[in-house]
Specification:
By secondary structure, this protein is an alpha/beta fold. The chain has 2 domains: 134 residues, Rossmann fold, CATH 3.40.50.2300; 66 residues, Winged helix-like DNA-binding domain superfamily/Winged helix DNA-binding domain (Arc Repressor Mutant, subunit A). It has 10 helices and 5 strands, in the order βαβαβαβαβαααααα. A 5-stranded parallel β-sheet has the order 2-1-3-4-5, sandwiched between helices. Keywords: DNA-binding, Phosphoprotein, Transcription, Transcription regulation.
């Protein structure tokens, strides 16, 4: 079962989404929070597989909550579920450490699909969000990746671009999972990007992957 923590300050939204998700054979909502502060406490105590995080909440917003959770628990999988697509929400949320970004206008089955994909180590972004990231990446000067990454890092980046999880990469290259995580962290640092999605976009932009 994929254990989910759902943070949203609208009770009816929580009731509706939680009821649908809990009806799935592989997903269960184990806790709900109506503000960011409670979400942080519950996330660090329960360590759910997935955290669904609203952005605008009382006391503490979703961006601050996401940042606090990731700072203390870097492996957390946080899916932003919001009505906002403006730059002041999208970029800070992703930079805070959110793994995926969905809209409340998405169908319930799309939220469930995003949960399953994020649980497998993939990032799920609304098309509009991907477009925003692409635009921002175009503003960065193009550099030769071969001058920045080692051969092993380039190999791992190509596997990341194929949608493979850290565990799948470790299995394919016959190296430890911890080693893969170190390489991925080095790749993000060298490319000066915040997450795997931005690293893949950077790789596409430089022609490393098709």
């Amino acid at each position: 079962m994929i254990n989910v923590l759902f943070a949203d300050d609208h009770e009816m939204v929580r009731i509706g989404v939680s009821a649908y998700l809990s009806a799935q054979p592989d997903i269960q909502v184990i806790a709900e929070a109506d503000d960011g502060g409670k979400a942080v406490e519950m996330a660090l105590e329960l360590r759910p597989d997935i955290i669904l995080m609203d952005l605008v909440m009382k006391e503490m917003d979703g961006i601050e909550a996401t940042k606090l959770i990731v700072e203390q628990w870097p492996e957390a999988n946080i899916i932003i579920v919001t009505s906002f697509l403006d730059d002041e929400k999208v970029y800070p949320a992703l930079e805070a450490g959110a793994t995926s970004y969905m809209l409340k206008t998405s169908k319930a089955n799309e939220i469930a699909r995003a949960i399953r994909s994020t649980y497998k180590g993939q990032s799920v972004l609304e098309p509009e969000v991907t477009g925003k990231i692409m635009s921002r990446m175009r503003e960065k000067p193009v550099e030769q990746l071969s001058d920045q990454l080692t051969q092993r890092e380039t190999e791992i980046l190509m596997l990341v671009a194929q949608g493979k999880t850290n565990q799948e990469i470790a299995d394919e290259l016959f190296i430890a999972l911890k080693t893969v995580k170190v390489h991925v962290s080095n790749i993000l640092g060298k490319l000066q990007v915040q997450d795997r999605t931005q690293a893949v976009i950077y790789a596409f932009k430089n022609g490393l992957v098709e």
